[in-house]
Amino acid sequence: MNNDKNVQRIDYGIILTVMLLGLMSVGMIYSTTALMEDAGIRATIMQIAWYGLGAIAVAIIMQFDSEQLWKMTTYLYVIGIVLLVLTLLIYDRTLFDKTGARSWIRLPALGTIQPSEFVKIPFILMLSKIVTRHNNYYTYRDYNSDFKLIGKLTLFALIPILLVQLQNDLGTTLVYLAVFVGIILLSGIKWQILLPAFILVAGAGITLILLVTYNRELLVKMGFGGYQLARIETWLNPYQDTSGSSYQITRVFMAIGSGGIFGKGLGVTDVHIPVRESDMIFSTVGENFGFVGGAILILTYFVLIYHMVKIVYDTKNEFYAYIATGVIMMIAFHVLENIGMSVGLLPMTGIPLPFISQGGSSLLGNMMAIGLLMSMRYHHKSYFFSGDGEEFHSGA
């Protein structure tokens, strides 16, 4: 009987899906770096090692229940802010010269890490704690309480978002914003407040596109970076400079298109694409396995997100529900943006493909998020917050 209960506490749907993505990742990185010989083998082995480290992180994080996570959240958030500030002070100069971003710190033996990938976890936890505490304090919701919640969420979200943007990392900034928006949408704030905000943001986006097209100088005067504006221009007109700013994305189009329906086979990468093994790895999927391979990968992501959404609906713990929402938004936005930019539907932002792209920081951050979801299933007893949002008592 106890064994049956233990089986129910493990979400094998998520475990098996992540394992499948891991196999795909190793295969795609091997295929992408095969021509690099020793360097390619090292890249493949390192990805396997990062997956092993990620599995350990999952096993550790899932041991913490919601009460323990609640108590740790504020401390983790502060540590995260310190890490982001530290990154701005001691960022890796070599990578800055190559990418223009101050996102990486170089550590002895480990190489470079990207702290903003790890800070996503306390960011999600902190916003989830704020909403849960607010909703348990304001049992009657009105416009006043909703605006207070928006103010608190914005304050605590804005600090890490601005610090990441100061690192000149637009892609990661957008991921933080996606998490922020997802939690706000589920927080119970009235649609009469959210709808005008959505219209305002949509209008700002359209205005930005028009200004990039017709009055770029104004955006430069407003403080927008030329590098970021060039990426938007490349998205709008990808074939305007195929030997310069559009070189990478047009090569991605060529690789995916050359794969046809079933692809050329594992290890065949005829089209050269810069940093293909990281942000552009979907082009390897398309070239090696064609439309069918790309569709299978996208379907695998749908299965993973389905299991994540199921956790939100199954849990009776409000804190857990918001955490799961933040994780879903983080993973879903990564997938949407990475594949979207690879096929020309969205601008290039340098966002890796979750669980597939090469990169230890991104992979470990995603595995830590999986650990949070596994914690929800593992600690099957439901907890509810009392009125002050600080104490727990068992629920049915």
Automatic annotation (TrEMBL):
Any GO MF annotation of the entry: lipid-linked peptidoglycan transporter activity
Main localization of the protein described in the UniProt heading: membrane
UniProt keywords, alphabetically: Cell shape, Membrane, Transmembrane, Transmembrane helix
Location in or out of the cell: Membrane
Record-given protein name: FtsW/RodA/SpoVE family cell cycle protein
Family matches, as InterPro entries: Cell_cycle_FtsW-rel_CS (IPR018365), FtsW/RodA (IPR001182)
Membrane-crossing residue ranges in chain numbering: 12-31, 43-62, 74-91, 103-127, 147-164, 170-186, 193-214, 289-307, 319-336, 356-374
Topology versus the membrane: Multi-pass membrane protein
Entry GO CC: cell division site; plasma membrane
Taxonomy, superkingdom: Bacteria
GO terms, biological process: cell division; regulation of cell shape
